[in-house]
Write a structure and sequence with these properties.
- The longest helix has 7 residues, at 39-45.
- By secondary structure, the protein is mainly β.
- The strands form 2 sheets. Strands 1, 2, 4, 6, 9 and 11 form a 6-stranded antiparallel sheet that branches. It has a 5-stranded antiparallel sheet with strand order 7-3-10-5-8, with no helix packed on it.
- The relative contact order is 0.33.
- The protein contains 2 helices and 11 strands.
- The protein is 7% helix and 48% strand.
């Protein structure tokens, strides 16, 4: 029954002809090239993407390189980790923790990746060598060979207000680096 009705339709063309009585011209709003951007690049363009590095650091024997960010309870911003990358001159273990305490050491300054932008990160930072203290929970532990490493989180590791993220790389008698990047909103 349906086939018979289709056979009786006089206009089988999906597209009309320019000389037909109902001619329309479609407008394609796509302009080449198409541009697609990640959340990270949008945050960077808005001045809300930051990076923090330990630089190349010497780790004494039996110790770890430690890097920590603390998002204070009243910060009003959520931290979304983009990536952790770096390298080590010898085999090591990279461990990412929720919580923990890094005592003394230095206070590295996060850099806004929109160069020249005055927006500052809300996190408190700490860097040192030693062992992580206090109460902490291991989130990820990865054995590494000598060389470079990179973990992409694309914002899937979240540090809300009142939480701490700590990273440990070691153990020592080598040179290593930890580079952390994130965006805030």
């Amino acid at each position: 029954m349906v086939v018979r009705e289709v056979e009786e339709i006089t206009n089988y063309n999906v597209f009309n002809q320019s000389n037909g009585p109902l001619f329309t011209q479609l407008t394609n709003t796509f302009s080449a090239p198409g541009i697609e951007a990640s959340a990270e690049s949008g945050a960077a363009a808005a001045g809300s993407f930051f990076t923090l590095t330990t630089n190349n650091s010497s780790i004494p024997a039996g110790q770890n390189l430690l890097l920590q960010i603390i998002n204070a309870a009243g910060s009003g911003r959520t931290i979304r980790i983009s990536s952790i990358l770096g390298g080590a001159t010898a085999a090591a273990t990279l461990v990412i923790y929720s919580g923990g305490t890094v005592t003394a050491g230095s206070i590295p300054v996060p850099v806004n990746t929109l160069l020249g932008n005055a927006n500052a990160s809300v996190v408190t930072t700490r860097q040192n060598t030693g062992t992580l203290g206090g109460a902490f929970t291991s989130l990820i532990s990865i054995p590494l060979t000598a060389g470079m490493y990179m973990l992409d989180f694309n914002g899937a590791l979240v540090v809300p207000p009142g939480q701490t993220l700590s990273i440990s790389l070691g153990t020592g008698n080598q040179t290593a680096a930890i580079n952390l990047s994130w965006w805030e909103f």
